[in-house]
Structures are given as structure tokens and as C-alpha cells.
Amino acid sequence: MNFSISTLILFLTVLPAVAGPYPPEAGSAGSTAIHKDSTLFINWAIGNSSYVPGTDVDNIWKTPSKAYGKAEGTSMDIVCLGNGGSITLYFLRPIRNGTGADFAVFENSFSDFFLELAFVDVSSNGLNFFRFQTASLTPSAVGAFGEVYPDEIDGFAGKYRQGFGTPFDLATLPASALLDKQRIRYVRIIDLIGNGATKDSSNRAIYDPTPTVGSGGFDLDAVGVIHQNEDAMRIVQSGLVPQGFLLAWESNPGTTYKIETSENLKIWTTLETLTGATGATTERTLSRAGSTARFWRVVRP
Predict the structure, then answer these.
(1) Do 184 and 116 fall into the same domain?
(2) Model confidence over 67-77: pLDDT tens digits?
(3) How many structural domains comprise the chain?
(4) φ, ψ of residue 40 in degrees (nearest 5)
(5) pTM of this prediction?
(6) What is the DSSP string of 12-58?
(7) Residue 158 · residue 87 · CB < 8 Å
(8) Residue 284 belongs to domain with CATH number
(9) Whether residues 215 and 246 fall in one domain
(10) CB atoms < 10 A from the CB of 218, how many?
(11) 130, 135, 137: which is closest to 179 by C-alpha?
């Protein structure tokens, strides 16, 4: 949520008498917040496959590209999801499961305690998405300008103020044949409406500032990558077909590939430069005309 310069709002923060069981706000002992300038980050989101804004968001905040690249840590350089909206981002390389946090999500809150929350889902194939477990111990509705304490919530994007990312560890997700934790191609951020009707992973009511308008809901600054998959590409299908030669490989949306051909494995000529398809694979049918012997390869920058 954003406020005009002409509006002055005073907040009186009253900390809870007993600290919650989860990591506290940025800058406090035990916090897991990661600053946007941390050397842990090796890459950032480069595009989106879906942006579905929810309600109560003005057009000025509906620019998905504001979530590409490094986190700005400001109130204005964001894409607003709107109440109940979502965005699905992709990256230059897949995110992989490493030691500790694998990526982090940045929101634009101006305060440690004015926290607009969102669910985080990931997918390796663009079809099957898996959600991180969440916990909300906020006891009651907080109103449009109410406070949510970071040590009472866990597993949500938006836990920390602007300039600090909320980390997510792929190792905490359950194993599934439909999820390759070493090749996470998509991260989906879904705003939640925190009026108590939405539940956490233990079926407890979730509360965050509600209702909000103009730039309602989660304001996404960026998604930073900590562990990135640099493995060689894998060919998933190749062989002769009536139209020519079929070549299919594991790809990443937004990554540029070159298809090259050779007759002698020494001199290579670029046939096509293309961007990875939506999903987990890209395929091309290549012509065999004009030569008794021909070879093809896919090159990734």
C-alpha cells in the first residue's frame, strides 16, 4: 500500500508483551531478513508468465516489470497485486535447492509492523505449484492501518519492511514427483485478503491490514535468487520425424537459446535464436534437406 506525500499518518507502535515464536523484525536478533544489497543474491526475476491484479488497485501500480531486477527498497517502485491478485515470475536460470534459503521476496512496507502478506508458490514445470507452509498467530482483525508482528507470522511474503527480503527454503517443501527442487522455474506470489476468512496451514485465521484501496494488497518490489541451477541442459527428445529432425530440451522461460547446425562438427552455423517456451521444455523440428550428414546442438549463453 502507498500513501501520497500530502497525507500524514501517525502510528503508535505497541509491542506485544510476549514475543512470538518466529523470527522478529529486520535488525533484531534472530531475524532472518536479508538486505537487498546482500552478496547472497546472484540473480533476480526477469519476467512474468501471468499477472492477474485483484481488486482495489489503480492503473498506475499495474506494471509487472517493476518487479523485475534488483529490489529498490522504496515505496513507489513496485507492482501492486491488488486484493486477491497474483503474479508468476520467472528467472534467467532455474532456482535450485541449496543450503539454507534459496530465494527471497521483497515487499514495500514502510514499517516493521504494517505488513501486507502473500502466499508463495513454486513450480518446476509451470503447471503444478506447491505452497510454502504458513503460520499466523495474529489474534484478531487489525483494520486498514493495523499492525502485524513479524514474530507472530511465518511462511508469508511480506514479513519484513522495504529493503529486506523474506527468505524461502525449498528444502521445507514436501517431496513430490511433480516438483523438481533443483529446477524451480516459477515463483508465484498470491495476495491474501486478511479479514480472517483466509486460513494458514493449520487452519487458523490470517489477519493483515484490511481493507486497503488504491494500491490494495501486496506490493511486490522484487524476488532475489540465492541458489541458481547452472547444470548443463538436458535433451529430453531427439530423433527423425516425417517433417525433419525433432529436438527438445529442458529450458527456462526467459532464457535465450541458439540452435546451431554443422555438417562436420567443426564449423557451426546458427539456425535460430529463440526464447525458452512457457513450461519446462522447448522443442523445434529442424529441416534435414540439402545434406547427407547433419548435426544440431542447442547453446545457452
Answers:
(1) yes
(2) 999 999 999 99
(3) 2
(4) -65, -30
(5) 0.90
(6) -----SS--SS--STTSTT---EETT-TT--EEEEEEEEEE--BSB-
(7) no
(8) 2.60.40
(9) no
(10) 35
(11) 130
